[in-house]
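Tutorial, part two.
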Amino acid sequence: MSVLTIADSFYIGVLDLAAATAWYSEKLGLQKVPLKMDDAEGCVTLGFSKSDQTSITLGPRVPTDGRTQMLYASKASKARDALSSRGVIVGEIKMDRQGTHFFEMRDLEDNGIEVSEEP
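Running the prediction step on this input gives:
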């Protein structure tokens, strides 16, 4: 079982789909699930299980609005340690104004993802 959950389905644009798919599978423990996007050509959808209601879709890089994507963890420190041990670039654990612990991580193409303790 993963130390992470997907907060809400989201899209990440990548340059090398095969390398990104392998990275997300190896580093985060995601697996391919049935495509859920309307225009799925050139995309791969990943989840922690085939029955997940939320997913991450990888596909061609497109201009973004700069929005940071989010994953949840029951314990930020446990998730950070697990990801760091797999070679993921992770930041320090911080606390927001509401007292929620979180950290930022980067994928192999430098896309930013925030990992936050579940509300």
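The two ends are 20 Å apart (CA to CA). In part three we will examine how such features are distributed along the chain.
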